[in-house]
Hints:
Mean pLDDT: 89
Distance between the termini: 19 Å
Number of strands: 7
Oligomer: single chain
Radius of gyration: 17 Å
Helix content: 40-55%
Shape: globular
Number of helices: 8
Order of helices and strands: HHEHEHHHHEHEEEE
Structural class: alpha/beta
Amino acid sequence: MQERFEHLQNVISSQRFLKKQGLGNEVPFFICPFDPKEAVEMEKTEKRLTNKLKQSGIQVLSINLYDLSITLLKERGIFERILETEETRTKDELKELLQSVLDPEAHLIPAIAGMIRESDYDVMFISGVGEVFPYIRSHNVLNNLQSTAKEKPTVMFFPGDYTHSLESGASLDLFGKLQDDKYYRAFNIYHYEV
């Protein structure tokens, strides 16, 4: 984990990364894949990285999708009602309900856009991807963020694999098992050269 931490720190603190160079006019989205078994360790690494970058004068806007979801539900006054009805709903009904009330285009991205407007940051970190599955899908967040968060680099901490192949294109494989989130416009941060 120390080696990955150092790589992430070197990449994210580089002027090439911060100035979005070498991306071929693509959106500055980066996937930081990690083994889901290392989720707790990666959360610590992300916090340590944020602090280290701050010491170097690089401001990070950290957004945890799970925390943001809870905040949005509370702000709309529906969090308690969802908790109360959870026991009487099937998993599919609950998933459908959460997908509608936390729709990325209608609710999540406008909230993130507000955070972007209110923050003076150099790079945005998005985490909590595994915690919001299946009602929020990572590729939906990235697709909807393309017009909102293209000015500065975004790093999504992803519990799984981000693979590219000529046959199947690019795929976000959540937990290393669910291979249905196609997203083509992000870069694997471990393959980005300083």
